[in-house]
């Protein structure tokens, strides 16, 4: 790896003041992302994965929000930028695509016109050139008959086509970083496969870095180079894709892997589920947030474990007090797969 | 039927024919025969004119045996939800027959349908929309009991608390409102409500797709346990192929209103015959990086065609990598491939095809 990472997040904290109390949505996240790499962020609803990434683009700056930490992008400290400064970065050097492409497109304007607008905001070119570029982009993301399609409204597009149009818009200004927040969750599997292949192809072509936020470990296994597992506002485990899937260190990661219904394994009679529910972010449990749901917890878990290397692999970090050699036996359930609690026991 | 549609070239099999070829003969609890639901497309300002029809369910036949789970998979718009609602008689079918325990449901009046409803219950996808926010849990679960003759309040309360306990909720939560529960807990309430009248068949329409993975596993395990305890029969509708395989004994795959493949779960996933089934399986991302890299994915071109104007003959021919002329001319009927495994395709996949795309599903359970 040469030089500085493209994006560096240091101890990001995001809290929201509400009538019910202070919601600690993001509770100290740090990571670095190199150019051209894909970081997969996995976690369930309320884990803070979306809030952390929306904060990169200043989308969580609300009057009731309290944000601290540092986000350095390509030498630029994003946290210190004013709204105008952020505007220059947003949709230009960093683009974002969301889960629901229908609510991300304006229903009253033709798709082509919305693309033209995205181009004109950041580039000094005339309308004609921008229109030509818009059609070119729609073609690039695999929309057939792009010229005619540019003159249509979002409701005339199918779900997959809308997500393609969103990706075209995100790419309009050759971003260095694409943040994709559950981009395929609303899509059918065959369309999902199309969109994931498209993002992969464009990433290779334009040397973009990608942050892929998803709850689907299948998608992570498919596209990510590095993976961050989040739980209740914190990163509980981080490592390369293979480390997370083949040598997971945190019981929550075991639980996620065990909860999956997989088509690539013989069927089991019961799933190795995680009992209980995620904690309230207003009053999370002391110490390890996963403690109340973890069958392996012990006294020490009432203190918060730091996110650090505990296994033998450098760069593979986790937040769990269990002795690494013990983890290897604890995480295997009767089927030989990884799980949190043995469903047969 | 709209005039430009032709009658099928070969008669599609009836529920009884499909059932007869399936081993392990048990008696059928539900028989669906040549079921059709066409929605009219209307246009006009003062006078509605019918300008077309959407064949949401088109000549579908299958049986569900006592105590088994039939999984229904397909992508959005394939008609799986319409089919399940038509079975429940929540939508009136255009034609065809639905027999529950030997009794014909199509054409029953609302009054005569009511006693049958006791035995046929439904679990819905959205745990937020399917519970009345103004009613307490006791009422939500207790109402069906009251409607079906459990008059005594004390008796109802006891029953509701029993049900709450059985679905993994605290019986003390009896007087709470839905908003006090999380998504997974609400789904448990929906399940308790469905169980209240001791039904025999439960149609679960995407019961876990709105839930997080860890909660999904809890609900799947719960439904599994309930089936064993109460001898329930399930129709499990979902778009998630992994979930459907986990819960189902037999699986039906739908595409544009038709069943294109049906058979025992391990046969359909381990040895798919219809190219659509194979392309669905190959599109599922596998949570195992090495396997994911090793296999070859079939990425289908284009989108699902408009349901108002489905392709002629085989509806999948416009996207099928193996399509030839005949696929655009003659509609393939469902054909028996042995062991109760049926598929509607002119070019059924053989072993070579399947191995070439390295389907990774192990065939034995």
Q: Describe it for me?
A:
- The complex is a heterodimer of chains A (345) and B (365).
- Chain A has helices at residues 49-56, 83-89, 101-104, 111-122, 127-140, 146-149, 159-171, 189-206, 217-223, 241-246, 251-259, 324-330, and strands spanning 7-18, 21-33, 38-42, 65-73, 76-77, 94-97, 177-181, 209-214, 226-231, 234-240, 308-309, 317-318.
- Chain A is α/β, with parallel strands linked by helices.
- In chain B, strands 6-7-8-3-9-10-12-11 form an eight-stranded mixed β-sheet, with helices on both faces. Chain B has a four-stranded antiparallel β-sheet with strand order 2-1-4-5.
- The two termini of chain B are 42 Å apart.
- Chain B has 13 helices and twelve strands.
- Chain B has 365 residues and is of the alpha/beta class.
- The chains are: A alpha/beta (345), B alpha/beta (365).
- Chains A and B meet through α7, α8, α9, α10 and α11 of A and α6, α7, α8, α9 and α10 of B.
